[in-house]
Amino acid sequence: MSKLQSRYVGARPFETDQQLIFKGRQTETEAVFRLVQLENLTVLYGKSGTGKSSLLNAGVIPKIKAETDMLPVRVRFNAYKEGNTFAPPAETARLSVRGGVASIQTFLDKLIAGENTLWHDVKEHFIRHKGQKGLLLVIDQFEELFTYPADQVRAFAEQLAEALFKTVPQRYWDVLETEYAQGKHPISPEELSLLQHKPALKVVLSIRSDRLHLLNRLDEQLPVILKNLYELDALHPDSARQAITEPAAMPKMDWFDSEPFLYEPAAIEHILDFFDAGSRWRTPNVVTG
Asked: 261 pLDDT band (50/70/90 cuts)?
């Protein structure tokens, strides 16, 4: 782990290398982790400011890395504006997968050369690891997808559905049937076996509560999108105390630029009162997500 220096991250989400000081969300981390293990598609939602990004970055992703054979890949869409140069959502997801895994040419290119689909890139990862390593796509601030034109939103939903649920798209079988009919064998038996096995792909979508209804726009392509929901509530006061006190008390070692310290009980209560907005708890190191 790289040197953390500060015991608190300030007014920004936690990153993956800051899991050491991410406190107070153990129950929620475990709950989302279990959902990811059980389901192909999970939706994490909560009010703005409850720490969804932090939970994923410093809670769920480190646990996935430590306890499973899945490779987490984070995806983030930029909000669309007319005339911008941002890649369409489907391309953004593909580029994120390619950036997160070593890209290699596989036998898929013998069948359809240069295909630019999410299914293709996920399948390449599966082939590269001989089917032994899964892939977890973590798409944060998913509400930004719906700022894009409707055709781009639909194209992304179609590609995501294909990657999640199609073992082999029909276009690949069509190519193989044509080749076999001509007496050709473009791929080996081992390659055919890999082609016929469904990649282990999991997806987590994180979205604000007030934008959750937008997911209904995707139910034609992803009818199960609202099946597995997890709501991230505000921190309970006891968890907020843990998030404040535990980073302060950790030994300095090589991680921090300050000695450990303790809070007076009155100081903790003052901090909690300050961050209590009436409807949710916030602490100095549990921030917007």
From this structure: very high
Cβ atoms 39, 226 nearer than 8 A? no
pLDDT for the residue 101: 60
Neighbouring C-beta atoms of residue 23, cutoff 10 Å: 21
Per-domain boundaries in the chain: 25-234
pLDDT of residue 254: 83
Domain range 25-234, CATH class: alpha beta
Do 83 and 267 touch, CB atoms closer than 8 A? no
Query: Cα separation of 20 and 66, whole Å?
Result: 14
38-55, pLDDT tens digit by residue?
Answer: 999 999 999 999 999 999
3-state secondary structure of 77: coil
Q: Which helix (H) or strand (E) holds 137?
A: strand 134-140
Q: pTM value?
A: 0.90
Amino acid code (one letter) for 235 = L
The one-letter amino acid at 112: I
Are 288 and 51 in contact by the 8 Å Cβ rule? The answer is yes
206: left (phi over 0), alpha (psi -120 to 50) or beta: beta
For 55, which DSSP code?
I
Q: How far apart are CA 209 and CA 233, in angstroms?
A: 10
Q: Write out the H or E segment, with its range, that includes residue 207.
A: strand 201-208
- Dist. CA 185–CA 113, nearest whole Å: 16
